[in-house]
Design a protein that fits this description.
The chain is mainly alpha-helical. The protein has helices at about 1-25, 25-80, 80-150, 160-175. The longest helix is centred in the middle third of the chain and has 71 residues, at about 80-150.
Length: about 180
């Protein structure tokens, strides 16, 4: 009795799965998934451009700190007052420390930017592959449907379509002769 119930349950579930597969619009689902991926790629590209802009800002700030470091050192050399020269050297040292921090930030930022660029390229390649796969599936489905229609109309293999065209051609020829 239990085995019958299990068989009946499995059969029922299988028939429901079969109906879902038949009703499921694969092209619409694929289009929806591609649209989501396209949006994700677009968001990633926007984020990449922001990261690139931030990288340029870090590079600019680093150049400015290096210039400031050099200016403070030169100013300390030219300053005749010892107290003011020491203050210039302290500022030189602070600017140098900020420049060193910016060097580290720039290196880390460059690493992150390169990783993000690789990820965006990977996503773009995957999107292109999925578009090609969708187009291939559309083509295969159209071909299969065309064969199905041809077979439903009398069968390609047994020549019924050929006979239809022959009868049609005969009729056209008879009409032309008249």
């Amino acid at each position: 009795m239990m085995a019958r119930i299990k068989r009946w349950t499995h059969g029922f579930v299988a028939s429901i799965d079969s109906m879902i597969v038949q009703v499921e619009n694969h092209e619409a689902l694929a289009a929806s998934a591609l649209r989501e991926l396209e949006q994700g790629v677009a968001r990633s590209k926007v984020q990449l451009s922001r990261v690139e802009r931030d990288g340029r800002a870090i590079t600019q700030a680093l150049a400015e700190e290096r210039e400031a470091t050099e200016r403070w050192r030169e100013r300390a050399r030219r300053e005749p007052d010892e107290a003011r020269a020491l203050e210039c050297l302290r500022r030189h040292k602070r600017a140098g420390a900020r420049a060193a921090e910016l060097v580290q930030s720039d290196a880390e930022h460059t690493r992150i930017e390169q990783q993000l660029r690789r990820d965006v390229q990977l996503l773009e390649r995957r999107l292109q592959e999925l578009r090609q796969q969708r187009n291939t599936m559309r083509t295969r489905q159209s071909r299969a449907e065309a064969f199905g229609v041809a077979q439903a109309q009398g069968g390609v293999e047994n020549g019924e379509i050929s006979e239809i065209f022959e009868r049609w051609e005969t009729r056209v020829a008879e009409t032309e002769v008249r």
